Amino acid sequence: MSGATPPPEQPEYLELGRTPREHKPRRGLGAGIVVAVVVALMVPLGAFAAFRLLGGGGTQPHDVLPANAIGYFRIDVDPSAPEKIDAMRFLRTFPAFEKYTRIDDDRADIRKVVFDAMLDHTPCQVDYEDDVAPWLGERLGVAVTPPAGSAAEPGFAVAVQVSDEQVASRGLDRLRACDAGNSPAGGWTYLDGYLIVSETQGRADALAAAAEQRPLADDEQFRSDMDRLGDQGVASLWFSGEGIYRAFATDEAFGPMDDQLRRQVDQSYRSGAVAFRFDDRYVELATVLTGSAYEESDDGAVADMALPESTAVALGFADGEGYVDEQWDMMLGGDPGMAREIERELGLELPADLRTMFGESFTLALDGKDLDLGALGSAGPSALDLGLRVSTDPAELTRIVQRLEAKARQSGFPLDLVVEESDAGVVAALNRAYASKLTETGSLADTDAFQTAVPDADEAQAVFFVDFDALEKPALEMMRQGGAAGAADREVEANLTKIEAFGASGSNHDGYAEGAFRITVAD
């Protein structure tokens, strides 16, 4: 990752519109209290990250944080935004949210809620409405920077949007006074409508100067990743795997694993970005990873989700055999002996048999109709409607199934798989009725639950789907049979029953991979 060389640790003076006297170090400031306030107010335990500034105009945190950052987190907060209300409705679907946050209003100002909760555990006589609300903005960013000079640990910079610098200074002075002597010295300054906080005053000034010269927003890799990510949602995260590696790559740090780690970074984790998005029906985590191992599929193959509508769990991916070819060495973790051990345990020939099993398209499915997990003890595995459908060589897959059955019997676990062929692919299932069902084309992908949980499934190379509604009854029955009847267990049940589905999808492109993960609730 490219980055500007940071200015000296103790700049004589930064031209930020103030006199040199105003820039003198504030040795009495406790970095702990300032960081605690800005983080606790705006990033409380992740669940409160459901507040977004719509429109996205104006200066962003990455405009005032330095380009040499190796990690970055941002969040936008707007107590009145309509989309924030949707997010609150989603979170308040779960009884535990209101119970533990005491938030019973979709329009609640989460900053005040968290600030008041924080003050319950401190001696500070600070009032949110008088000392914080008049200056606290709606955006926050945190940058992790490489170790500076002789330092062994990475540095940090926190950028908090402020509406009035003078009012902010008075409010921060009150926060500083209540924490005087209880936390290490830190420093802060201002840049383009943001409060910049770091470990020392010199460091805060240096980071602000570096950002003014070349902000993170100007870094080519950062811009590219964020463009691919698209909507950054209520919060986003970015990291430079290459920058992290370079910051810590020493003979002492990684030793003999250095070459392998360097390859992994280059192939799969050169950089990455994550966005947290909310809708009144789901929470979504969208991802982008860059690396040389990611390649666009030549034939545009997508995951096979033409499964029965009653499917409760589905996992599918395209071009599995190609993935095995490309990632086999990485799967073994550099240990060829692992393959020999797996061959002895399962009676397989690797990696050839693994290529056959995954084929051009691989789908594993569990049906939810009449699902009875308790019947496994008496009826055995055949009680489950579980099977796979693979686009591969039928004779070779049959040979592999027979070997697995033989190994299972030797281990005292009788396994009798039914193998059938159809236009949809070769099917192997635990019972004949479900094998026949899998040979047909189903409508799972057309259901509302699936489409809400799995975005762009018709273009995804990998898909995972869980219908919690289908699993709810058998799972709760097993919990109750296991003695789950206490208040805590009932609370878990009350929250789990609100979830409708979980979905994930992913696709490779030349040089990067995209993914999306959703948890949904019913209308």
Strand order of the largest sheet: 4-5-3-2-1-6-7-8-16-15-14-9-10-11-13-12
Number of helices: 20
Query: What number is the mean pLDDT?
Result: 79
Report the radius of gyration as a whole number of Å: 27 Å
Strand content: 15-25%
Choose one word for the global shape. globular
Stretches with pLDDT under 50, minimum 5 residues: 1-56
Proportion in helices? 25-40%
Span between termini: 44 Å
Number of domains: 2
How many beta-strand segments?
16
Helix/strand class:
alpha+beta
The major beta sheet can be summarized as:
16 strands, antiparallel
Quick tags:
single chain, 523 residues, alpha+beta, 2 domains, 16-stranded antiparallel beta sheet, 20 helices, 37% helix, 22% strand, disordered N terminus
Model description:
This protein has 523 residues and is of the alpha+beta class. The protein folds into two domains: 23-219, no CATH class; 293-514 and 516-520, no CATH class. It is built from 20 helices and 16 strands. It has a 16-stranded antiparallel sheet with strand order 4-5-3-2-1-6-7-8-16-15-14-9-10-11-13-12, with helices on both faces. It starts with 30 loop residues before the first helix and ends with a strand. The relative contact order is 0.11. Mean pLDDT is 79; it is low at 1-56.
